Amino acid sequence: MKVMYLRNESNLKNTFYLLDQHLQVYGIQYEMKITPHQKKESKKSKTRVYTTVRKKDIDAKDHEIVKSINNPIDDNPLKTLPRRFDEHLKYLRNDGSKVICIACKEGGIIIPKNQIKKHLILSSHLDSTKLESFSYMFFCEICDLKFYDEMTWDMHFEKIPEKHKNTAASRRENICEHECLTCKVILYGDALSLRRHRNSNTRRIERSRGSFLSEETKKYFSSKTIINENGQQLLDDVKEVLDEQECILECCRDLEDALSGYFRDCEAHPFGSRISGLGNSDSDLDVFIDIGDMYDGVKKQSEKNQKKIINIAMELFKNKEEFYRITSRPSARTPIIRLKHKPTELDCDISFRHGLSVENTKFLKFCFQLQPISQTLILVIKKWSHLCVLHENITTYAMAMLTIFYLQTEKYLLSVDTVKTLNPTESRVIDGWDTITYTAPIEEVRQHIAMYKGGDIVILLKGFFKYYSDFNYKAHVICPLLGTTVLKSQFTEDLTGSLLPEEMKSYINKINKEENPEYFRSLSEFCIQDPFDLSHNLTKACSPTFVEKFKHLCTLTYEMLEKL
């Protein structure tokens, strides 16, 4: 009731403008009595309020929103396709028992009814029909989650999310998929969701925001001397962090002590930027905690088991005064607990799934040992991403893989598969993925690469920014495993993996043998394949707008460096 009175205050109406709609969703009718004082205030501000509302109404009319599917239970599968596929219908024939695409093969190709959408987004189909791929953003308003490709969007609904199940019945029956033709957004929600969308210009602002190099960025890269000095300073800062291993050991000991009463054999394995040599004093500490035979990813990997472990660990940490600000993300791809360690003031991300991230860190350290300039180059590019405000959408690890891949194309680093070949000692298999046991002497491995002469990184920076300003993000996957690109179509044309190279046999085995395999998100706008977990696209959440921005900033930075 107090909230409703607040809503009626003239100076707070904009803050509570959705409250009426919330009440309507749950079937509550409420009429606020207006006091004489409020009537007086209303008359005073009538013109001002009217102007504000008119502006919002005009903005709302800019959004052309329609239902994606008019009749989702029609017997004809072509009539249950979302309207964004309307241009494809002229190439499809339904004879009752099967659907045929007449564009993709002479005489037509038969498509299983549950695979129609997957067929229509294949690059081969788009090439045959000369139709363009979609550039929609997908938003589940119920879960507050964004997606950037059709396949990932469909996967979201295959297993009904908990938030969908917990939605009030009065609201649930009105929820469906909508398309905002103005913003190119697919939105799953109800009338309240649509009103929120109409009152938000986020999408249009994102599209219209220009990309440019800040003055701070220009200053940081203003001369070859300054660039190399900045690189050396970053390297010195990293070495200071690496020298503070006692803090990390103390934190890991306290983590183990907190859990050992329940998980007797637990062992903390720190990883991430503080361990690899890419962190600074503000970096979080990532820790995988093996609570007993978990490192290889064989035991307790299910979502249910991971949530149980997270809940138990949360309670154990809360009982220890060494930890505070304890939160969790149990539904993440790798569930984590976030906390702060009071004695060292380290922010920690704690996971319990398996040790593959620890192996990723070992690979980065190996690259820095093999080709020392690679560490400095990644540090400078990481700094560039922060200056350009790209770090909010792409992780340090993904930026490191971009850099390593570029160096692989220049023969300054080896492909991950070649490193495996040069280290033939049997390695651990973690969650079905092959890792590397680094037994070959580093000097022997260096015989297979071109060592970078001198400490000047400007030439490498120019090469990096030129490479990614010209890169074909729509067609190619960045693949550090091979050291070359892979066509996205090799993942999508045949979901059994028959078109993929032999080096990806661990991925091919998993998608063909597991009951609910995780497919590589090759339809995402930006694709970087993790070199070990081959089903993981490190940049699957990057939007088309972000890719445009990244590519444009690479171009601007290359042009700036060319003038030095």
Give the key terms:
564 residues; alpha+beta; five-stranded mixed sheet; 17 strands; globular
Molecular structure report:
This protein has 564 residues and is α+β, with helices and mostly antiparallel strands. Helix content is 43%, strand content 13%. The protein has 4 domains: 2-60, no CATH class; 66-208, no CATH class; 240-356, Beta Polymerase, domain 2 (2-Layer Sandwich); 362-562, Orthogonal Bundle (Poly(a)-polymerase, middle domain), CATH 1.10.1410.10. The strands form 5 sheets. Strands 1-7-8-5-6 form a 5-stranded mixed beta sheet, sandwiched between helices. The protein has a 5-stranded mixed beta sheet with strand order 9-10-13-12-11, sandwiched between helices. The longest helix is centred in the middle third of the chain and has 19 residues, at 224-242. 30% of the residues are buried.
Q: Count the DSSP helices.
A: 25
Mean pLDDT score, rounded? 86
**What is the topology, as strand order, of the major beta sheet?**
1-7-8-5-6
Under CATH, the topology of the largest domain can be stated as Poly(a)-polymerase, middle domain
The assigned CATH architecture of the largest domain is Orthogonal Bundle
Query: Helix content range of the residues, please?
Result: 40-55%
Rg over C-alpha atoms, rounded to the nearest angstrom: 27 Å
